Amino acid sequence: MQFRSSTRILFMVGLLVGSLALFGCPKRPEVMQAAPSAPGPTAAPMPAPAPGMPAPGPAPEVRVTPPPAAPAPAPAPAAPAAPEASPLKDAFFDFDKANIKDDQKAALNDDVSWLKANAGAKVLIEGHCDERGTVEYNLALGERRAKAAKDYLIAAGIPADRISIISYGKERPFVLGHDESAWKWNRRAHFVVQKM
């Protein structure tokens, strides 16, 4: 029986402490008397001060200073522009070859037409290879592929001074993978239009 009483008392004390913790003790607001206003045409006369009290002076001027304006956020830096898709088509090569295949001549003829229509454009031809072979071998093969594409454009009437070449070998694959489904896309001459 006594166990129940002490449990009940503990419960009540816990409830009281929990209530105080949740609601806290309210604090009475301080009441301050406003400074008397200066007499004006509609103001009532101020009462005389009580004996022993100093006479009130004019009300102090109250100036409200607005908080300083927050500095404007700096504009977000512009995202780098995505590279534009080249209007020129790539030419693809067989394994370990640098000759232009018959099925790639249509793409190159379209490139020739575009370059003739855009006489101010210059083009960079990148030579690429698949991942097989050494770095040195693929750099040389990529250069032969880029040169073959350049020679095709020159033979079709594009001035040589509008065309430059570079080889990346196997360092910049277009498609990642370790079989023919990826390799066939990586053996290419890629055309990049230079600024006009």
Report on the structure:
The protein has 196 residues and is of the alpha+beta class. Helices cover 32% and strands 11% of the residues. The protein has helices at residues 2-23, 105-117, 135-155, 180-186; strands at residues 91-92, 123-128, 163-169, 188-193. It starts with a helix and ends with a strand. The model is unreliable at 29-44 and 76-83 (pLDDT under 50).
Number of strands: 4
Radius of gyration: 43 Å
Q: Quick check: average pLDDT?
A: 78
Low-confidence stretches: 29-44, 76-83
Shape, per Cα inertia axes: elongated
Count of individual helical segments:
4
Cα distance spanning the termini: 99 Å
The proportion of residues forming helix, as a percent range, comes to 25-40%
Strands across the major sheet, in which order?
A: 1-4-2-3
What structural category characterises the helix and strand content? alpha+beta
Order of helices and strands: HEHEHEHE
Biggest sheet, open or closed, and with what strands and sense? 4 strands, mixed
Quote the beta fraction: 5-15%
